[in-house]
## 1
Amino acid sequence: MIVTNAKVYTQNDAMPTAEAFAIEDGKFACVGSNEEVRQWAADRAKAAEATGDAKAAEAAVPELDLGGKFVMPGIIDSHTHIAMSAFMGGDDDDDEFPMYDCKSKAEILDKLKAMVKKHPFRLFYAMFYGQIEALADDPLTRDDLDKIVRFRPVVLMENECHSAFLNSAALRYFKIREDTPDIAPGLSRYDRDEKGRLTGFITEMTLVPILAAQKPSKKELRFGITKLLSYLISRGVTTIFDAGNMTDEDMIFRTFKEMDEEGKIPVRMFMCHMLWHPDMVPSAIEELKRCKAKYETDNIRFETMKMMYDGTQRIHTACMVEPYADTGTSGGTLISESELLEFMRALNHEGIDFHLHTVGEAAMRKVMNCVERLQAEGATADGAADEAAGGEPFRITVTCAHDEVICLEDIDRFKELGIVANFTPSWNGGNCGSEPENMQRLLGLERGLCTLQSRTIFDTGAVVSFSSDEVELHNLEHWSPFWGMEVGMTRQDPDFGEPLEDGTLDGRTAPIYPSVDERLTLSQLIKGYTINGAKQLGIDDRLGSIEVGKDADFLVLGENLFEVDPYRLHEVIPERVYVKGRVQSIV
Ligand SMILES: [Zn+2]
């Protein structure tokens, strides 16, 4: 097929725009002007004639005239959680684990009372209560919950799944005792009062057994995966990095493999083995290899190790160089810098890429120090490995995801060390409870004004990739890369604006999340959602741009993205989505 009369934004620096391209065997075979591509088709027919293949010579190459429409490469969502979202809630109407957005402790307790009244015989009560900020001035404790439910477990989960409140029966149910050690101090911990008594507040990866207890049926899991993939394809996503699962990796990977064998995975899925407990580190490489051997298919690949290296600043678990302004604590990391160095050295030896959750400034610095050290070990001035130092050439891609608070001294190190910075632009409008006042309370006035600096890092020349990093099945539009592009460009969240008269969302009236200088350009956003995502995944030799030899993944849009009002970008839906030269319909 040849595609002509299009405005093609190739993301190939050597030829940023084109009019036309040809597709053969699922790959771009020619990219250029209308004449060049038509000439390619004519030459191809001639060549077929010369070889005596009369049938091929006669078959005219079909031409798709796009009449000036906008074309860009298929989108790469380089960090999101399809399986985890499907795992936690395959059903929209989830009365078992409802989601609220309570604004105070009293409201949370009222919701719990109402739930108990509605379901008096339930053996286990669980709900998402809202954001932790609802409790900033008036913390909840197990005693508050015990007054409502004494003998049966109650779990109140923060909507972002980084912490929870448990009553005494839930602590007992999950075998959390006064002497249970924290998983990682400062990070995944069981909160205790001055006397060492558990308060019922637990953070980060201590939640894993609770999430595992919500195990879905296979049917629910498949329902959730199908729902999310259908939506993502409809919004132009053709390649996904699934950034990890905390439990039941085998069940999840098996389900993906089965679905792929049934032809129900029409995108490329890059999976990882996720480490959330220090005890998982020694066997991690073997485990990733086991999953790869067992579950890999053409569409489902296992090339990456993922580590939850720190937490979030909102519950003081992200690891900081300068302590939190309100508590004076500094958070923590899953393993120490020296343990990380050893692990990264082993990954490099195996050629396994490394993707880390790093929110705080100290977490990123530790990763950077390790990369710097291994690069130094691996290369002398003439580029050969310094074997005297025991080094191997450093060849893996290391990605730091989230990167919310970064020290000024470290900003240039992404570029210098070749570390990929992965960001989720939909957070740049200050959702996730990271309102400026809240950030200033946690981080101090100045540092609180300088978070989510994706523009600054992009402008250093580093590889910056963009993703949706979603973990839920509600509000599907937050998964859309075009929603991410709008918030990335404006630093205003459509959800926080005054809706227009017709009820549609309008980010224009939403507060601008500081700093306004961090607004990204549309060109940067497209790059981060395409070629830079391919670089992160090590597939830029075959994906990420419209370039001869690469897979023919591309989107046709009814309007030129560069001419769309930035405040309407979130409504953009591609007219057609092609994977390897074929139109993808909804699975
Ligand atoms: Zn994530």
## 2
Amino acid sequence: MLATAGVIFFIAVCAIVVGGAIYRRQSSKCRSTRRLKGKTIIVTGGSSGIGLATAEDLARRGARVILACRNAAKANQVAHGIRERTGNAEVQVRDLDTSDFDSVRKFAKEFKETEGRLDVLINNAGVGIPEKRLSKQGFELTLATNHYGHFLLTNLLVDVLRASAPSRVVTVSSLVHKYCSKADLEDLNFDKTPYAVFPAYALSKLCNILFTKEIARKLQGTGVVANCLHPGVVATGLLNKENTWLGALLTFLLGVIGKSRDDGAQTSIYLAVAEEAQHMSGKYFVDCKESSCCKLAEDEGLAKKLWEVSERDVKLQPGEIFY
Ligand SMILES: NC(=O)c1ccc[n+]([C@@H]2O[C@H](COP(=O)([O-])OP(=O)(O)OC[C@H]3O[C@@H](n4cnc5c(N)ncnc54)[C@H](OP(=O)(O)O)[C@@H]3O)[C@@H](O)[C@H]2O)c1
């Protein structure tokens, strides 16, 4: 009995290791060699994981890169490292907590007061909160961080993006959006449905796609394009922000099967730099190629409704709408 269990365990470990190796080999690279001197790019959550790797690549291409982060000490250290490794002094840190609408408004105001242009906004920051928690303004924290904050941030920066056109919005979603079987826009806060991290995270990633499709429609003809992506399964600390045993186990598994963060950043980089990506909008990408998202994510009516609900919840003011 024990021997059988041992054999099954051994086969499972081998399958995970071999499967991971095959998966990593299939990862696509952004082939563009485009330089970005004179371009300004914001990367939210640029202080770790996929965001860090994205920011570093863009800095290496000569862009002015703003790491928009909630932990200034950590982000400053990261920015210092990127400046040293790339020789690009134009890597800056600005405070941004995407879950807090006051912080988002402050960031956008200061950015507009001090920066002349914005060529690419990369909405990358993300979390999956293990138990239900509320943001400063009283919204479920996973959705507030992943969707509402980026919804508000992008809206507040649309005027700069339009003035800097051709320009781009890139939003990091996830394949996990496909596991969202319904989107109850009347219960985004999980007041009626019992909270669990996986459905909440999946919902937030579905919202990332619906948001991208709707803003792409609104920005049609302005020279600002908006696309979103799944980065792949990537070995980052995303699943263990709270230091739980389950988080540690999942992070270990991500480490075994996942891509490196440099490989995980490739589709974000592709959408930010590739010439052809300036001519596509409202699309979902995987491995630097357009891909299909789930039916719910293609629902135009749902996207419009989410937009209205989000506008209401972040309290978007008439002076903050630039369409
Ligand atoms: N890793 C994967 O397999 C995978 C798969 C699909 C999609 N994604 C998506 O990829 C994106 C990047 O995740 P990752 O894997 O690179 O994880 P990560 O290493 O944990 O990076 C997430 C980043 O978001 C930042 N962040 C979290 N909450 C924030 C807030 N309220 N305000 C500002 N920044 C905040 C984090 O800051 P701190 O450093 O301060 O925590 C961190 O820099 C996320 O949107 C995630 O949903 C990841």
